[in-house]
Amino acid sequence: HFNCYPDVENLFLWSNWLTPSHMTERFDAVFFFTNMNHLTLYRGSPDYKEIESSEWFTPEELLDLSHKGEIWLKPPQWYEIKELLHVKEFTSLHKHSYQRSNSCLRWMPVRIIALDGEISLLPGDEMYPNEIHLFKSSPIVRKEESMASLRCKKMHRMEHTGVKIVLFDTRSD
Known about the structure:
Organism: Cuerna arida
GO molecular function, one term: metal ion binding
Structural class: alpha/beta
Family: Belongs to the Nudix hydrolase family.
Strand content: 15-25%
Cofactor: Mg(2+); Mn(2+)
Number of domains: 1
Strand order of the largest sheet: 6-4-5-7-8
Keywords: Hydrolase, Magnesium, Manganese, Metal-binding
C-alpha cells in the first residue's frame, strides 16, 4: 500500500522489559531501534488499540511533557527515552545501538511501596533480589520507610511519586 518496508539490516534490539510478576496483565516488551537515513518523517496511523496517535518529539520534549503530566509514559518508555539523552551526537547513535543490541538482557522491575511513593528496583541495584521468578507471582514489598531512607550506595532504580519519576543510577560511581 505505501510501498515501504522496514530496514531489518539496521534494526537493533534496544531493550527488553518484563512486567513485574505481581501484575495481573503482563507484557514482555521488546524495544528496537533503527536509524532513518533520509529526511522524510513518516506519520504512523493509529490503530486505536496500542497506537492512539503518532508524533515526532525529541527525548527532551517527551520527558518535559511527562514531567508536566501532559502525557503518561510507562516506566520502561520513560527509562529508555532518558537513556537516549546519553547519546550526544547523532552519528554515534548507530554504533551505540549496535553495542546495546549485543548485550541486551531482559529486565523485570521489582516494586517496593514506600511511605511516600513507589520504587522500581532494576538489575544492578543493591536492593534488587539475587533471585527473581520471572513467571511466578511475587508479592509487592511494603516498607514503613521513605524512599529517601531506602537509598543505598549502589542504586539502579526509578522512584515514582504520582506522574513524576526520578531515576537513580549509581552503578558506575
